[in-house]
Amino acid sequence: MKERLDWIISEKAKGNIESAQTEMLKLVSDYPDDVQAQLECAYFHDSLGFEKEAVTYYEKALSLGIPTDQLSEALLGLGSTYRCLGEYEKSRETLERGIQQFPEDRPLHIFLSLTLYNLHQHDKAMEILLSQLLETTSDSEIQQYSRALHFYKDQLDATFMK
Predict the structure, then answer these.
(1) Is residue 129 within 8 Å of 111, Cβ to Cβ?
(2) pTM of the predicted model as reported, rounded to 2 decimal places
(3) Sign of the Cα pseudo-torsion (87, 29, 72, 5, in order)
(4) CA 34 vs CA 13, 56, 57, 63, 118: distances in Å
(5) In whole angstroms, what separates CA 60 from the centre of its chain?
(6) Is the terminal CB of the chain with fewer CB neighbours within 10 Å at N or C?
(7) Where would I find the TPR repeats (predicted)?
């Protein structure tokens, strides 16, 4: 199976999308209970903009039991795909599941903030983005305002007048 996957990836990289997709679909048909085949098929379709098709393969891979070392990436992929399809609640649930299992996985938080924006939870989306920025930036100009930004991130709608 590894050789077939390598060939598919190579064909896709060369721009031979149709033959790569045909072979990818044969692969998942030949190995319907192989989590790796399902996951690779999800990524393949997702990367080509075939989000609807990708969901089926993400969900099948999850039902088969994705190994822990690949689970956060799969949940991020599925959550992001749901968001692209306008299925914001499913996106939120999927990304929050990922964050519960992998709280240190920063991309999950960032993608959740995108979904929260779509759900009109702008304050929570901004809070997450600011938190991630403040925890990761090495930019001295931003760090200079770190204390103020930490204070404001939880009070975006507050005004301070005496």
Answers:
(1) no
(2) 0.89
(3) negative
(4) 23, 14, 11, 11, 34
(5) 17
(6) C
(7) 72-105
Per residue in 118-154, pLDDT (tens digit) is: 999 999 999 999 999 999 999 999 999 999 998 988 8
pLDDT at position 2, please? 84
Q: Domain range spanning residue 57?
A: 1-66
Tokens representing 87 are 């299925």
- Asked if residue 151 is part of any domain, the answer here is yes
Would residue 7 count as lying in a domain? yes
Tell me the C-alpha distance between 62 and 79, whole Å: 12
11 is written with which tokens? Answer: 């064909």
| pLDDT tens-place string over residues 21-77 | 999 999 999 999 999 999 999 999 999 999 999 999 999 999 999 999 999 999 999
Asked whether residue 83 is domain-assigned, the answer is no
Distance CA 78, CA 84 (A): 10
Contact 79, 50 (CB under 8 A): no
